[in-house]
């Protein structure tokens, strides 16, 4: 007799009526078998039982007759997971989908942990995925306590680098994240209606992650729309490793800011941003009057924050123009801070600026040429009337400078610029970009020009090197906006940022798709951020 329910519905049905053991076998059973009369118009007179082989014997406990058709409750019927490729698909869905364990390298030397148990309503689980041949593995204990609103995960394995992306319960909002007992640098990643806490961990040791929640939705309603974020001098760092955009801003952009320094917003789509978090907090007694133009650059495995700081103290020199309306001669320069993460916290190399201490300088940016780092910055028109663009070489670790600043060009070289010796001419917001089409070196920068107002200009180096000469100086944007930078989006678009208008408190981030033809660069269209 068959030991499974038949798969062909036309066959007679049977099921196990009893299962047990005897002195010889540990697994014996009795089947109940039903046969519908194939000729219901005829009366059954007799039933003959014949063995398939001569040695086969029937052991019949009983026979019953019924006028009703044979029916056995099928119960839960399973034939296991699919075979071959079907089985692989099921295992893939379970391991990489639900358990969220992915080998991101070779034999789990790198791992991605992205458990999605909250989607399945599972609050506690232990998972271990291991390669028997190499011994590479990932193991974790996952526990979510809905009453205490806390998610804990202990994990270990052979991975030297582990990226964690933890799916969050949809009705809760993150209040704190700690890793191994210390506050962790993390981002919130939005995928559709789902939100994930993302952070990286180094080392194959055992780690303990704890996420504390409070009631409220983590997803779209807690995110900020681009149009609602006031920001001047926007700088965006696109991290390809976790597909996250980081937008840096001086904290004074927000009217309710309670610290002096720099903060960062993060986003996956450039339209919805997490609330800002501090990455640089300056001491209250630092004597800082203003924070401008924060830029964050990754270089040689570390992260560097370029920030222009204006002191409350003034330079010990007279104004170049004796007019009451001429701005104050405050100490101003670009400082460089460093960190191990784009989320900071950033630390200073020194108390003084990297730009010359006796210069009013601003808007420093990083450019690397033939393996040597440079800072390109603006010498303030307030001090010299005709503002200039300059560069200076940096030390390999960016902690200091080498040599003296070198002049690149003057603001008076811009088309339509003022030429009077007593009228200020502005250099502002420089950023360098090397063409992917021709290797030509471009610079975008901003100025204030008669009949144009605050605008963005494009220049290029005729030598293809930082020392120029710098030519062309054409206006590419003239609608009361500026201080731009250039980056590539995750879908491959070349984008330029700027703030517009240049009037407070209306400044907002604007993005423009631009084209690099190799010979020049032009704006194609503005990106809709709504």
Q: What's the topology here?
A:
Blueprint: E1 13-20, E2 28-34, H1 85-98, E3 101-103, E4 110-113, H2 117-120, E5 124-130, E6 137-145, E7 150-157, E8 161-167, E9 172-179, E10 182-183, E11 187-191, E12 194-202, E13 207-215, E14 224-225, E15 235-239, E16 244-250, E17 261-267, E18 272-273, E19 277-281, E20 288-299, E21 302-314, E22 330-339, E23 347-348, E24 361-369, E25 372-379, H3 381-384, E26 388-394, E27 401-410, E28 428-434, E29 441-449, E30 453-461, E31 470-477, E32 482-488, E33 494-500, E34 508-516, E35 521-526
Parallel strand pairs: 4-8
Antiparallel strand pairs: 1-2, 3-4, 5-6, 6-7, 7-13, 8-12, 9-10, 9-13, 11-12, 14-18, 15-16, 16-17, 17-19, 20-21, 21-22, 22-23, 24-25, 25-26, 26-27, 28-29, 29-30, 30-31, 32-33, 33-34, 34-35
